[in-house]
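REQUEST FORM: STRUCTURE PREDICTION
Request ID: SP-0412
Submitted by: Lab K.M.
Chain count: 1
Length (residues): 231
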Amino acid sequence: MIELRDVTVTVPATGLDSEARALLSDVNLTLTEKRIAVVGANGSGKSTLLRLLNGLILPSRGHVRVDGLDTATHGGDVRRRVGFVFTDPLAQLVMPTPIEDVALSLRRTLPRAERRDRAAQLLDAYGLAHVQHSSVYDLSGGERQLVALVSVLAVEPAVIVADEPTTLLDLRNRNRIRDELARLDQQLIVATHDLELAQDAERVLVVDGGRIVADGPPDVAIGAYVELVGR
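STATUS: Completed
RESULT:
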């Protein structure tokens, strides 16, 4: 279970005449549903909210807890439970080839001699065996995003947080990633501009101006978001 209590995230003032700016304000959430989507305009606070969930960002005030572990004091334990998939996989893939990247993810869970075999098995399971030794720069956008997802799944986190995972993809690859996300056994929390992807969720959060302005089942929350952006 993920809990956010009285969470505010602020950016300090940067000049003599500027003031501290709140990216998120007074967020209180308990996230238990298996599929949760977060929608909102660019700059609304979606990415900040997601990055709080595995300690990539710490709250300026309040607490974020995952299975009772505070992200501020147990960041390593939290990140082993909560895997994060970035919008741009090239911001996440740090090794030259897919097999090396997935093997790197396994460094804390498997002996060195077993990592490449296990990485190859995982890539094959996602239809990526044919690109396992290719440069990540030679992969299609969909292949890169799948490799990034496999690298996160390799360590078997309980929760997957994905920040706009289909934004950079064409329709075919967007549909492929959507299908793979739907098949996950883990709890999935995804920020997206794709309202069809948001419809797959059990619960949708709408973020605007750093606040949760709607929270409910997809039809209700997405309807509130459409009305909000249409004003």
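NOTES: The two ends are 35 Å apart (CA to CA).
Reviewed by: T.R.
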